[in-house]
Design brief:
Length: 287
């Protein structure tokens, strides 16, 4: 067996996918935590410039996705490489900081495990192909967006807009759909939720969703084509309704408490990525 055949064998492929997924999940935790803070600093600097006042420069090392090194938010203890091994370190530390024993949020290993599971599943579903690489870029981006939206009710343009262009570039080669369908998908995805937003606002005087949701659906349309948009919208609405009702009943959450829509779009997009075409074809046969 030559090296290429060895890499394509299921045990090696899935093991590599799991390891890559765990590492990417660890990095996505950094993105989810730091990107909103980076954007907030950028906005504050821009506002200070517009107002003609001195910008509040962060002290110490630069703050980005690489620097400074990860640290405990409670005591500031620098996390070593051995304390930053995905899943394993969390288990060995008992889910607590090595220094101050503050509890580490369960979300961190959850993101790592979810990313690894999705990476392995995509590798299994699409096999050792270019389609897998493209699909993983979409999946990893969607995971980051979902958790950022859960934390901040914000879907950053720094991810959604490049994702739109990446979808169009990928479909230049017809990986998920043809280019005209991708272009129409991006346009239709944006305009569909934009129309719902303004209709709801005109009727109630309130904002039902954010502009980030428009851009996220535009990105999904650019990747999967306009044919998948009705399915994505329907699935996201159903998932959102079920989870929303569950939160109201189980957690006694008020009906007026906002719920981010981005994670529901992400769940629907992941379903459409894998089973969307089969679902649409099955539905059309029943008509």
């Amino acid at each position: 067996m030559n090296p290429l055949e060895l890499l394509q064998s299921p045990p090696v492929l899935f093991t590599m996918a799991a390891l890559v997924g765990l590492c990417l999940g660890s990095f996505l935790n950094v993105v989810v935590y730091r990107l909103p803070k980076i954007l907030e600093r950028r906005w504050r600097a821009e506002c200070a410039e517009l107002n003609g006042t001195a910008a509040e420069e962060p002290a110490g090392t630069p703050y980005n996705l690489v620097l400074p090194r990860s640290a405990c938010p409670v005591c500031g203890h620098r996390i070593t490489a051995l304390q930053n091994i995905p899943l394993l370190s969390y288990a060995l530390l008992g889910g607590r900081c090595a220094q101050c024993r503050a509890r580490i949020p369960l979300r961190y290993p959850a993101v790592e495990a979810l990313t690894a599971a999705l990476t392995v599943f995509v590798a299994w579903h699409f096999g050792p192909t270019v389609t897998t690489l493209a699909a993983l870029v979409l999946v990893w981006s969607l995971v980051a967006l979902a958790f950022i939206d859960l934390d901040t009710f914000y879907l950053p343009d720094d991810i959604t807009l490049p994702l739109v262009w990446a979808g169009l570039v990928v479909n230049l080669f017809g990986i998920f759909t043809d280019l005209p369908s991708a272009v129409i998908g991006a346009i239709a995805g944006y305009l569909s939720l934009w129309s719902v937003y303004w209709a709801y606002k005109l009727l109630t005087g309130k904002e039902g969703m954010g502009y980030g949701d428009f851009k996220l659906l535009a990105a999904i349309g650019a990747w999967l084509g306009w044919q998948q948009l009705p399915l994505v919208i329907l699935l996201s609405s159903v998932v959102g309704a079920v989870i929303g009702i569950g939160l109201i009943v189980a957690a006694r959450r008020g009906r007026n408490v906002p719920i981010p829509f981005g994670p529901y779009l992400v769940i629907a997009a992941l379903i459409a990525l894998v089973w969307g075409e089969a679902i649409v074809q099955h539905y059309l046969k029943q008509i």
